[in-house]
Amino acid sequence: MKIIKTKLVILFLCLSGIIVNGQSRRVADKYFEEFAYFKAAKIYEAVYQKGDTTTYLLKRLGDAYYNNSQTENAEFWYKKLIEDKKEKDPSYLFKYSQVLRSNGSVQKADSIYNLLKITIDSQSGEKYVNKENNLQDFLNNGDKKISLRNLAINTPYSDFGGVIFEDKVYFASASPKGEKREKLYRWNNQPFLNLYKSDSYFERVDEAKTDSIFELENKTILSPGINTQFHESSPVFTKDGKTMYFSRVNFNGKKLGKDKKLTVNLKLFKAERVGDDWGNVEELPFNSDDYSVAHPALSPDGKSLYFASDMPGTLGETDIFKVEIKEDGFGEPVNLGKNVNTTAKEMFPFISDDNVLFFSSNGHKGLGLLDIFQTKIYNDSTYSQITNLDHPFNSKKDDFSFFIAKDGKKGFFSSNRAKGKGDDDIYSFYITEIPESERCYQYVTGVVTDKVTKERIPNAIVKLVDDLGTVLEEKLTDSRGSYNFKLECKQENYVVIADKRDYRNPDKKNISVLGKNKDERYTADLVLDPLIIGDQIVIKPIYFDYDKDFIREDAQYELENIVTVMTNHPKMVIKIESHTDSRGAKSYNRNLSDRRAKSTRDFIISRGIEPERIESAIGYGEDKLLNHCDDKNSKKCTEEEHQLNRRSYFYIVRGKEVSIDNVKPTVIDKKGYNNQKDMLEKLNKFKANKTKKLRSKSENDKCFKEDNDCGK
């Protein structure tokens, strides 16, 4: 009886712990769903310490810190989720790779990102693969110097969004107003944002007085007519100075508006100039309680208003939209489309006087979390390729709220990067020209050659790529197969990549310029392996498992090369020959090789190649063994030797003109290895015309075997 009582007490204590844990987690869930991430994280951690290590809890803990940009804490919990629990959800692989990169673990971030790309092949995760982009070149760091300053008006709280209007700079700050019972924003446990203005001035920072810093002073809060007890931010002004647009939470002066989930969203408002102040505040007609509309920006002609929103029609988490400003109101909001927006976050738009759209995104490939990007807006409302502003504007953390003045020299952006004063800080920048005599350049040169012919390859594509995979520049090799790049003197690593149609995989070389000198030159010669030699498409043999006819994964990779060549040469027609090893009856092996040929043919057709472009797909059974493993010696052979005979080959029947001088056929000796020397000697005997269509394989084989002068 005593034992039974003891067991009941233990069971009661265990159940009590589960109940308490469940109650605590529900409380944390409520805070989380109300965006009170600071409080939610603390309770989730207490629940974890009591034994709840479920994937649900780890996701919530990681997200609570991720949403507050506390990337070190987010990495700790995402690591447990991804590495301990083996979570494969693309959204969490994406976020884990982001926080790793933000925290400086670039190689590990790349490894997780590669796992993400593999995962999306079998899941609906394409939206988490970053769009590629180029680096910004309108601020060419080679001939300009960019001076940054963490502004004196920054506080330990969130400060962001400087814009110049008349002789003042306007921005948002969560610094305390000095009230006795000031409200706190539960998302980050800071005071709510208010709008401020400051005076600006220049400060010379070197003896030569060539380096200027743009600084602010005399911080003043805007009137209660604009600021409320909740958030205001992101002001923008019309050129006539009569109207200010800004963001505010869904608050009408008396109560907060909420959606069905009790979420308080953001809205856009406009105010009119009233003397030296602002008043007559009203919200814009396309706002809604059900979604957020925020971060306004005006086109240079003042006819369009840009903003960020998660309204219906959004491609991702938040997109950038624009709406026409009419005399009697506004048009219908229009999404900027897939060139600008991704399925992640795009926000904080700004349009410069020369019609360049700047915005922040974590969906385009960047240096860390939110990065600043730019694209030129054309007259037909299309956009140039997205480019990343790179250092010093972007960092491993969040970078956003970019603004550049009319003179194109000074401006602001905001960041929570390392060595700041607190949360988000405002940084000023000032751009000065560097005299030509002081500019620093380095050079990368090289040649691209054919691996088989050893000849240089003209018109090969050569790309210069940074260590994040961003294409900096792209060129074609000249008639001698040469290329060259002129680099700004940055402390960076680069990769040079060469590629051309009808060649196998691109070749690449790593170039490090860390700590190198001005005018230093680097050589990176590249070699490409041809996909076509003579009348044969050159790929590694496509092997089959014993007594099987399905296309293995390693064979699929090689077959994609066939598809690439045939796509590049739409008139090309090929034939397929498949083979078996010697084990089994000859009639059975003939049938098996036919099935292998058919499987090979079907795969190529499934990739979009027309059936009529495959003249035949024939199996030869064990008639054409590559080695000594015939019926007599079969039992003496290893499985690796038998494997060499279970293969498919591909031959061009017509549709490919090649130069005889460039033909160096590959043959396979009885051991299955490449042996070209003797064949090249015989090939020289029938070179005649510089360019002609090659004979069929059977005709060439006859020439080689009989040692005839087939060139005639």
From TrEMBL:
Organism: Tenacibaculum skagerrakense
Protein name (Swiss-Prot/TrEMBL): Outer membrane protein OmpA-like peptidoglycan-associated protein
InterPro entries per UniProt: 6-blade_b-propeller_TolB-like (IPR011042), Bact_OuterMem_StrucFunc (IPR050330), CarboxyPept-like_regulatory (IPR008969), OMP_bac (IPR006664), OmpA-like (IPR006665), OmpA-like_sf (IPR036737), TPR-like_helical_dom_sf (IPR011990), WD40 (IPR011659)
GO terms under cellular component: cell outer membrane
PANTHER family, per database record: LIPOPROTEIN YIAD-RELATED, STATOR ELEMENT OF FLAGELLAR MOTOR COMPLEX
Domain of life: Bacteria
Main subcellular localisation: membrane
Residue ranges of every copy of the OmpA-like domain listed in the record: 533-656
Pfam families assigned: OmpA (PF00691), PD40 (PF07676)
Localization annotation: Cell outer membrane
Keywords: Cell outer membrane, Membrane
